[in-house]
Amino acid sequence: MIFPDAMLGMLGGGQLGRMFTLAAHSMGYRVAVLDPDPLSPAGAIADVHLKAAYQDREALQQLSDSCAAVTTEFENVPAESLRWLASHCIVRPASEAVAVAQDRVREKAFFRDCGLGIAHSAVIDHADDLVSVEANLFPGILKRARFGYDGKGQARVANADEARAAFKKFGADTCVLEKLIDLACEVSVVVARGADGVARVFPVAENQHRHGILDVCIVPARVSATLAQQAEQAAMRIAERLRYVGVLAVEFFVTKSGELLVNEIAPRPHNSGHYTIDACATSQFEQQARALCGLALGDTRLLAPVVMVNLLGDAWAGGVPDWRCLFENPRAKLHLYGKHEARPGRKMGHFTVLGDSPDAALVEAMALRAALCPAFALTAA
Ligand code: ATP
Ligand code: MG
Q1: Ligand of minimum distance to the alpha carbon of 186
Q2: What letter would DSSP give residue 206?
Q3: Does ligand 1 come within 6 angstroms of the Cβ of 212?
Q4: What's the half-sphere exposure (Cβ side, CA atoms, 13 Å) at 13?
Q5: Which of 47, 171, 324, 377 meets the CB 3.0–4.6 Å disulfide criterion with 30?
Q6: pLDDT in tens, 47-80
Q7: Per-residue pLDDT reduced to its tens digit, 131-186
Q8: Ligand 1 pocket, residue 365 CB under 6 Å
């Protein structure tokens, strides 16, 4: 076990790394962040900020020399860097697990091996593969196999011609063509598995997206107990099969016919788990620190129904939002990530609202958002 005040390493300095750093600091750990961006949100509050590329051998050496263990906050960190680090210090999660999450083709094959339902799909390696592709995959979504996030590297396609055009636009890299699902809703589960193999799930979150980006997250998800249990068990199975150590998020589709399909995994805390900071006995970031340090995992119990709302740069269009309504509401909590420039689509922060029920929290959260950013509320999807 690694105890405070050991130094913990974080690959990536975005908001996830920042919230990890806050949690680790409150437990008495020190944190070293590797991120080339001199203005990185986590780097700004870390004990050490190594401003270098993720492949920079010298920086990786410094990280492994100074840290008791290293983890990551984003899945696109070069697998080679993780492997190199793993031969020098403790790295959790392991690079093999991260590699599965980095590639939609491998990910889907892995879900199938786990016996879990997934959307009907086909691998597209060459434009020619689209000639013989099954017609019932349309309308579909063409997704790049690697390096997609927040709906980037995806295109909705009505037919093979559109798919071909999108494939070309994505640089003819391997893609997955996925049938468009008639969604009842989307849910996700954040699961943590400790070095001792004990896993704990956080309550199931119901996720609403806007323009391919997570917008609102409602907990507990308004789905049947059976479906929630199914999602929790699927997440546990995935963590178990990967022999995962750390925090892992699993995203699911719920079809109109009530079927649960696994969409994708993220080998790190997740935007849909931010509610745990204010509404659970243990946050996903404290859990990440616990798993990384080989400690027992914390209690994941939900203390109150909660809604989380993402604050994208769009909310700054009319100037800095007037935060007073959030601070004046005793059930609301504001979290800002310390990003200097508010660009459209950029995740700047989030707020949570606790309620007596998920529906009550949602009503209050939507009223707060409308008060915070009236223009944004008017364009609500
Ligand atoms: P993120 O990083 O935000 O999780 P991503 O770019 O990795 O996103 P996905 O999770 O695959 O991509 O897709 C983003 C969103 O697009 C989904 O949450 C869902 O709302 C919608 N979507 C993706 N695939 C499908 C599908 N086959 N049918 C219907 N909707 C879909
Ligand atoms: Mg996703």
Answers
A1: 1
A2: E
A3: yes
A4: 26
A5: 47
A6: 999 999 999 999 999 999 999 999 999 988 998 8
A7: 999 999 999 999 999 987 777 899 999 999 999 999 999 999 999 999 999 999 99
A8: no
